[in-house]
Amino acid sequence: MKNQKQRMIHGLLYRASDKELRADNRRRKAALKAFHAAESDEEGSLILGQLFKSTQGYFKIEPPFYCDYGSNITLGADFYANTDCIFLDVAPITIGDNVMFGPRVSLYTASHPIDSVIRSNGVEFAKPIVIEDNVWLGGNVVVNPGVTIHENVIIGSGSVVTKDIEANVIAAGNPCRVIRKITGEDTVYWQNQLDQYYQETGEKR
Predict the structure, then answer these.
(1) Active-site residue flag, 10
(2) Catalytic position from the list 10, 36, 112, 150
(3) Residue 127: Cβ-neighbour burial (10 angstroms; 0-12, 13-18, 19+)
(4) Cβ–Cβ < 8 Å for 137, 129
(5) Kind of pairing between the strands at 148-149 and 129-131
(6) What is the pLDDT of residues 8-44, one digit of tens each?
(7) How does pLDDT run across 95-118, given as a tens digit for each residue?
């Protein structure tokens, strides 16, 4: 038989008032208080690295930052999140390598029953969120429960992502929809821009 924490992580109905979950919340609150009081980026990252389930190398999250538990967050290498992001990690949140978040990006794994009578009973559930490698989420993007955003995707500012997004596309809107593919022409254009930058600045590659 699964306990309340196990039910929560596995997407089953559970009660957030559970004693173990309340203890986890207290640890999260203490860690976030220390993070917001940190005197350096390195100190802040160390605190969050101890709170999160796992991290892979360098990452930076600008304060303020909020999460539900922290212990259900997995970060890949070279992750950056701008200020005021919210991760409701009731179910697992898994983020790949080379991912960037604009300010006020919100990842919501938490959800509640559609039926109002069941909802008022106090039980809730969650579905995991996966953000694959090389994804850029613009400011104020909201990702809903159960969504996977596949690799090399750009999501426009203010979008609400309610369904999975295929790889190698630009998507935006509410609800978020694919606008176009990212193509070889994009690669050529931006490579030319980078070459010009090096030529004009004299910076070494």
Answers:
(1) no
(2) 112
(3) middle
(4) no
(5) parallel
(6) 999 999 999 999 999 999 999 999 999 999 999 999 9
(7) 999 999 999 999 999 999 999 999
Q: Residue 124 has what DSSP assignment?
A: B
Question: Is there a contact between 58 and 80 (Cβ–Cβ < 8 Å)?
Answer: no
Helix axes 19-37, 41-51, angle to 10 degrees: 170
What is the DSSP code string of 16-79? TT-HHHHHHHHHHHHHHHHHHH-SSHHHHHHHHHHHSSB--S-EEEPSSEEES-STTEEE-SSE
- Is the pTM for the entire model greater than 0.90? yes
Note the pLDDT tens digit of each residue in 57-70.
899 999 999 999 99
- Where b means 16+ CB within 10 Å and e means fewer, 133-162 reads bbbbbbbbbbbbbbbbbbbbbbbbebbbbe
Question: Which of 91, 94, 88, 164 shows the shortest CA–CA distance to 126?
Answer: 91
CB atoms within 10 A of CB 50: 11
| Span 49-60, average pLDDT | 96
In angstroms, the CA 157 to CA 130 distance is: 19
- DSSP letter at 14 equals B
* Domain 4-201 CATH class label: mainly beta
Domain spans of the chain, in order of start? 4-201
Look up tokens 């809107």; give the residue. Answer: 173
